[in-house]
Design a protein that fits this description.
This protein is an alpha+beta fold and 121 residues long. The chain has helices at residues 8-14, 65-70, and strands at 54-57, 87-91, 94-104, 107-115. The chain is elongated, with a radius of gyration of 21 Å.
Length: 121
């Protein structure tokens, strides 16, 4: 488990249906080559409990520390985005999607409008 920056597409390419009768001589450190076969959500059950950090970035701003220290209650900071422009959605500090802010009862939420596909080197 050296690489902690996995994305689900990588897991889908290497995951295979589990057959409990076949893992008698396999340890966690053994490398297995599994052909690319169709998978279901149950194949990813092992990763369901892994915590991830999800961040929705409305925009960014740059300022000097002296100005930051002068900010008080009710201060307005101008961001680099326009009203209605898509926000960035990060998972574990990696851009994965863009979306829009929505209101759900008395809370804010995000609806994803675009999935960002990146290639791994």
């Amino acid at each position: 488990m050296g690489d902690q920056n996995l994305d689900l597409s990588e897991l889908e390419e290497t995951a295979a249906p589990r057959d409990d009768d076949d893992d008698a001589g396999i340890t966690d450190t053994d490398e297995i080559n599994i052909p690319n076969t169709p998978h279901s959500a149950l194949d990813l059950e092992a990763v369901y409990d892994i915590p991830v950090q999800v961040s929705a970035v409305l925009g960014k701003s740059t300022m000097e520390v002296s100005r930051l220290l002068r900010l008080g209650r009710g201060a307005v900071i101008e961001l680099d985005r326009k009203v209605g422009e898509a926000i960035d959605i990060y998972v574990n500090n990696r851009l994965v999607a863009r979306g829009e802010v929505v209101v759900l009862e008395d809370r804010l939420g995000i609806t994803m409008t675009e999935i960002i596909k990146t290639s791994r080197n």
